[in-house]
Amino acid sequence: MTIEDRLRDALRATAGTVDDRPERPLPERSPQASPVRRRLVPLGAVAGVLALLAGFVAAQRFLDDPAPRLQWTPAMPRFVFASTHGNGGSDDPDGGGPYGLEVRESATGRLVDRFEASPGVEFGQVAALRDNRTFFVTSEPVTRRPCRTTVQRVSVSGGGRIIAMEPVAGGPVAGTVPGAGGLAVTPDGARMALAVEKCDEAERIEAAAGNARIVTADLATGARREWPDSGLGDGASNLSLTEQGDRLFFSRRVQNKNPLEGDGGSEELRVMNVSAPSGSLLGRDAAGVAVARAPRTFAAVLASPDGRSVITAEAEFKAGVLPSEDAGSPGASPGPQQNVPPQEGFYLLELSAQGGRVLRRIAVRPVEGPDLVVFKNDASGRYLLTSGGIVDLREDGRLRPLKGLDDVIDVDW
Known about the structure:
Layout: H1 3-20, H2 35-64, E1 79-84, E2 100-105, E3 111-116, E4 121-128, E5 134-141, E6 148-156, E7 162-167, E8 173-174, E9 183-185, E10 191-197, H3 201-205, E11 212-218, E12 224-228, E13 233-241, E14 247-254, E15 266-273, H4 282-285, E16 287-293, E17 296-303, E18 309-316, E19 346-352, E20 358-364, E21 375-377, E22 383-386, E23 389-392, E24 399-400, E25 408-412
Antiparallel strand pairs: 1-2, 1-25, 2-3, 4-5, 5-6, 6-7, 6-8, 9-10, 10-11, 11-12, 13-14, 14-15, 15-16, 17-18, 18-19, 19-20, 21-22, 22-23, 23-24
């Protein structure tokens, strides 16, 4: 082998070792952000910091200044429920026709639905539940034969249509409901109170014990308790139950039995614990709150939810005129009676349930006294429904007329 051959073989061997070594890739170049993006990043960070600072300042002002805070205002019940005279829904109260139940919008007075009573049946007192979808109404034979009162539970749809009516558990109650405020229910519909008297007028004139009485009932079971009048009064009216149904406020007119002192008498505002023994007399077991001397009478009795106070208004019994602020507190000796001009309005009185001390005077104006024969408060205690319209008791006390209530027997919401 020549030298040339050996050099050629050595070159090949060296070339083989070079091919076996792995290749080393060149380092990749990192991507570069665009110039526009490089300018936007710091601007976004600054904007975020400014937004945090602005939010902090706004929250601090909200906490420090009570003016811009949102205030929760209880809304009025949407519907008003009324029992009407037998005029068939016409504008003429003497037009005849069946008695009826009406559902109206509280905002406008628009009639939403009407249900007419069967021939020979009349509707009377109305009491509504807190849900504004259920109310109770008394129904009686027009002839008072038989002499009994049935309490019906009425259900209303979300749109205000009357969809169901059924008598409450326990069946009819013997007697007739004498007048205003003869029916009361607790806001949840658990308990009912009813004032009744005998249908025969001659028997009522005798003023014998038991001619008038108060009946309470558990609406789930129908269990009842009764308290007869002592015979010294004309029975109870203006019934109002506390939220728990443990106390019942009512008014009771007591006639003067001494012929030498005239026939004026007086009216008592009383409160009774409904757990009192059934069968005991109203005048004995119901504590006195206040007295309205004739010719004044209590036009409203509205118990507070806890029963610690009661809202009432005195009215002129003969003239039907409500007193002004100068009328004084309940139980005061009656001075010269004067008619109150409509523009002056009248005052509701909030009284302590113990002793009748005046806690607050609530001005309501302007109104015409003779038109206000019904007073019902809502569940919030802010709004007062009357037969003349609606009053916001926390505002200026001005009465807002509500159409359709001119000829109602009773109304609630």
